[in-house]
Amino acid sequence: MTAPTFAVTAPNLTDHAPEVNSPAASTPTPYPPAAAAPAPKAPAKKTTGKKAKTFELTLTVTGSADGEWHAEIKQGNSYLVRDVAVAAAAVSRAAKELHEKLFTPIEALMDEARSQQAARIAALEAELEAARKVLADLD
Question: Which residues, listed in sequence order, are joined to residue 76 by a DSSP beta bridge?
């Protein structure tokens, strides 16, 4: 008696091969992958905190053509500091530090005061020269 024989056929790989799509041919999925989704944020807390207390001070700086500058600070109706002498250079530096819009008009006033002082110096030098000439004529 002979054993039955079976014919063995090799499987056709093209029939059962998994389908591979190229990235260009694939259609986008309606949902992004779970790893790309951001974590939900907690709702913002609503606080009923107090407003920061504000202070109102008035700084007044007064200058004269002589180059003398004075400052005073007022809070409400009362003066905290009154009639403090300050240097013109300090006023200029402070204005420059605070803001360009404050510096520009103050510097214009200081330029005018400088030119007035230069004119005064020229007049005094002319007067001094005239006095020296009179003194020389007396000798």
Answer: none
Amino acid at 34: A
DSSP-derived secondary structure for 79-129? EEEEEEEE-HHHHHHHHHHH-HHHHHHHHHHHHHHHHHHHHHHHHHHHHHH
Residue that wins the pLDDT comparison between 29 and 84? 84
Tokens of 86: 């300050």
- Reading the block at residue 74, the tokens are 């007022």
Assign 18 to helix, strand or coil: coil
Q: What does pTM read for this prediction?
A: 0.51
Q: Cα separation of 20 and 26, whole Å?
A: 10
Question: Taking residues 14-41, what's their average pLDDT?
Answer: 55
Torsion sign (Cα): 112, 113, 114, 117: positive
The end-to-end CA distance of the chain, in Å, is 167
Q: Report yes or no: 40 and 23 within 8 Å, Cβ to Cβ.
A: no
Q: Coil, strand, or helix at residue 65?
A: coil
